[in-house]
Amino acid sequence: MAKAKLEYIWLDGYQPMQSLRSKTKIENDFSGKLEDCEIWSFDGSSTEQAPGGSSDCQLKPVFICPDPERSKLGTPAYLVMCEVLDAYGMPHRSNGRATIEDDDNDFWFGFEQEYFLYAGSTNKPLGFPERGYPGPQGPYYCSVGARNAFGRSIVEEHLEQCLQAGLNVEGINAEVATGQWEFQIFAKGAKEAGDQIWIARYLLERIGEEYDVWVNWHCKPLGDTDWNGSGMHANFSNTALRTAGKKEVYDAICQAFAPEEIIMAHIDVYGPDNHLRLTGKHETAPWNKFSYGVSDRGASIRIPIGAVQRGWKGWLEDRRPNSAADPYKVAARIIKTVKSAEI
Predict the structure, then answer these.
(1) Which of the listed residues 95, 122, 139 is the one where a domain comes to its end?
(2) What are the UniProt keywords, alphabetically (predicted)?
C-alpha cells in the first residue's frame, strides 16, 4: 500500500497579519487529485480562530501541487492549500478567499511579491553590516555580484521549487534595498492567484529554515529611513479591460476607485502599516489620496504603456497593496470596485 504525504496549509487568525500554518496528513494510495483530499480539522484555539471550549475548525482543500523538496526523500508529497471553515462548515471570519466574487474566473491577477531576507544571527537584512547601514540604495536593484546581491542561493532555490511545484512564476529580481527581493506570479482566476502566492510564500519560509534566514514581509521593516518599502503590486484585468479598445473604459474603471470611502476600503485590506510605505516617496502615492496615470509609478494605479500601445486593451496595476497583504482580500476588494464602475 503506497503512502503519500499531504501538507495541509492554512492561514491563522492572527492580526494584523495572518500567518501560515501547516500539518502533515498521511494517505494511502493517494491519487494526487484535489477532489480526493478530505476535509480535515485542527485546534482553532491555538491559532486565534476558536475558543478553547469549542475549538474545532475545519480545513477545506482548494488547491494542490507537488511538494518538490519532500518528494526528493522518496515518498510522494503534496502541498494542499486550504480554506478555514468553522465547526458548522461555514467560511471562518478569517477566510479571505471565501469573499472573492469571481466564480467565472473572468478576473486575472498578477502579483509582484516583494520581501526582505533577514539573517537569524543578526536580525538584519542580508548584506547589512553589524553596525549602521550599507551604502545607499541604487546599485542593488537587479544587481549581480557579491557586493550588491545578497541571498541569491535562497532565491534561486525558491524559484526552482516554485517551478517544480507547478506554480506560474513569471520572474524574480533583486529589489532596490539590500537583501530585498521579488517574485511575480500570474493566474487566470483571482482565487488561484491567491492560492499560488500563499504556496510560494510557504515554500520561501520553509527554505529559510535551512539557512537560518527568515522572511520579513513587513512593508517598511527599516522604519522611517530613505530605504524603499516592500509592496505586492496587483496587476489585474477582466474582459472589459482586456477588450476595451478605448480610453474611456479605463478612465471609468479607475474613477470607480476614487471616492474617499472606496480609498479607505482598499487601504483597510492592503496590508498593515501601509501609511509608513505609501508616503508619496519611493515610487508610491500617498495612502489617503487616489491618482492614476499612464506609466506613472507614483500613482495609486498605473495604466501600463503596453495597454495603451495595444489600443487600450490590457490591464491595470494597483501599486498600493503591500508585501504583507492577503492576496485573497486584495483581489476581493479590487473585483468589487471594478464591478461597480459605470462603463
Answers:
(1) 95
(2) ATP-binding, Cytoplasm, Ligase, Nucleotide-binding
Task: Look up the domain containing 241 and give its range.
Answer: 108-340
Q: Is 291 a residue whose pLDDT tops 90?
A: yes
Cis peptide bond upstream of 125, omega within 30: no
Cα 338 to its chain centre, rounded Å, is 20
Q: Distance (Å, rounded) from C-alpha 319 to C-alpha 277?
A: 11
**Residue 340 identity (one-letter amino acid):** S
Confidence of residue 277 (pLDDT cuts 50, 70, 90): very high
Maximum Cα interatomic distance, the chain, rounded to a whole number of Å:
61
DSSP 97: G
pLDDT value of position 226: 85
Question: DSSP states of 135-197 as a string?
Answer: SPSSS-TT--STTT---HHHHHHHHHHHHHTT--EEEEEE-SSTTEEEEEEEEESHHHHHHHH
d(CA 94, CA 84): 7
223 grid coordinates: 522604519
